[in-house]
Write a structure and sequence with these properties.
By secondary structure, this protein is an alpha/beta fold. It is built from 17 helices and eleven strands. A hairpin with a 2-residue loop joins strand 7 and strand 8. The protein is elongated and about 80 Å long. Pfam families: CoA_transf_3.
């Protein structure tokens, strides 16, 4: 069985990508594959360790994360510890435009080469390293989990409740950020007018996480204030998560940047006949000291929840739109899957797990002329080795010899 590319007319058709990565960089390769690039997943004998990452499908034992991140790639097994494997890798690198990896410099050098050496040996190849801490600095050779990267980047400190330990966000968000920034930087290098010369792109996942801290660094730099996590509590009166009849909503009636909505919100509450809504007209709500105080937050909570707890998320959203007040339902995962907006845009695509088809998130962008497209399955270990080696010019004897060793190596 070989992988047939689902999108031969994609925007990146004609670009060849070698994906030597794992759980950090594989999503970057997925984005290239589903825009039409020929992405070759270069795996060690027996396959990538990422294939065992939980959660696993009950029916097949496949890693759902690996299956999603590696849709529409081709797989070849290469043992970089043997002369034959290194020769195969050399042929692959000479034919490729881009190489993706997420191993540290130390781990890569243990294979006999580093990122700079790759660039020297293959000057037309762009090499993108997406590693936990980048290729330089005292932590550059440290490995890390998603939680480690979130912690070192500062995001973990801001997640959770103020009276408890930090809480990690779901979904390996730091690795996703690294892959996204890596894809953007890689595309910039590929389209740059640089005489055909490749580049070495150094992406630090820690830095990608720190870029998402909003104004937390500025608060500390300018005011000496170390921002803390708030969980479901209000940051300021009228700014936070509130309960309703069927769940929760996020409201910005006031607080940071929200005072321009305060008049609309006050009219809404008074029109709805909410008890004590007239108190919202008092001047003290415009004083920072009051809206940041427990007294202000508690009073706002008392007024608004009398109304919110009697209405559903859908009813509150409809009313907020009418009154021009920023409010969002806090969607459950089931509600996201059933979202009319996402369904109208055909966001979800089918992914094959064994014999079953399951819904999975689709493209994070749309190209109208050369659309994103997915065939919906990841390759088996080394399933495309014969075809890829033949494309590289390996003769039948070489292929058979490699097969006889049990790996391409």
């Amino acid at each position: 069985m070989t992988t047939q590319h689902p999108n031969p007319g994609g925007a990146l058709h004609g670009i060849t990508v070698l994906d030597l990565g794992g759980e950090i960089a594989n999503y970057c390769g997925r984005m290239f594959a589903q825009l039409g690039a020929n992405v070759i997943l270069v795996e060690p004998p027996g396959g990538s360790s990422y294939r065992a990452a939980p959660p696993l499908a009950q029916s097949t034992g496949e890693s759902l994360r690996f299956a999603y991140d590696n849709c529409d790639k081709r797989s070849i097994e290469v043992n970089l510890g043997t002369p034959e494997g290194r020769e195969t890798f050399t042929r692959l690198a000479k034919s490729a435009d881009l190489l993706l990896d997420d191993r540290t410099q130390h781990d890569l050098e243990a294979q006999g080469f580093g990122y700079d050496e790759l660039h020297t040996q293959f000057p037309n190849l762009t090499v993108t390293a997406i590693t936990p801490f980048g290729l330089a600095g005292p932590y550059s050779n440290y490995v890390a989990t998603d939680a480690t990267c979130m912690a070192f980047g500062g995001m973990l400190w801001l997640g959770g409740y103020d009276d408890g330990a930090p809480v990690q966000a779901a979904g390996h968000q730091s690795f996703r950020a690294g892959s996204l920034f890596g894809a953007v930087a890689s595309m910039a290098a590929l389209v740059s007018e640089n005489g055909g010369a490749g580049e070495v792109i150094d992406v630090s996942v820690q830095e990608c996480v720190s870029l998402g801290l909003e104004n937390a660094i500025q608060f500390y730099d300018l005011e000496g204030h170390n921002r803390r996590r708030h969980g479901g509590k209000q940051k300021q009166a009228g700014f936070g998560v509130f309960p309703c009849a069927d769940g929760y909503v996020f409201l910005i009636a006031g607080g940071i940047g929200g005072n321009r909505f305060w008049g609309n919100f006050t009219e809404w509450m008074q029109d709805a006949g909410v008890p004590n809504a007239a108190l919202l007209e008092e001047q003290r709500w415009w004083e920072r000291s009051f809206v940041e105080s427990d007294e202000g937050k508690d009073l706002f909570w008392e007024i608004f929840t009398q109304y919110s707890e009697r209405h559903t998320k859908a009813e509150l959203l409809e009313a907020a739109i009418k009154w021009n007040v920023p409010l969002s339902p806090v969607k459950t995962l089931a509600e996201v899957h059933e979202s009319l907006q996402l369904l109208a845009r055909e966001f979800f695509t089918e992914m094959r797990i064994g014999e079953a088809l399951v819904d999975a998130p689709g493209a994070p962008y749309r190209l109208l002329g050369t659309p994103w497209q997915s065939g919906g399955h990841a390759p088996q270990v080394g399933q495309d080795s014969d075809v890829i080696l033949s494309e590289l010019g390996a003769d039948a004897t070489s292929v058979a010899t490699a097969q006889g060793r049990g790996n391409y190596a």
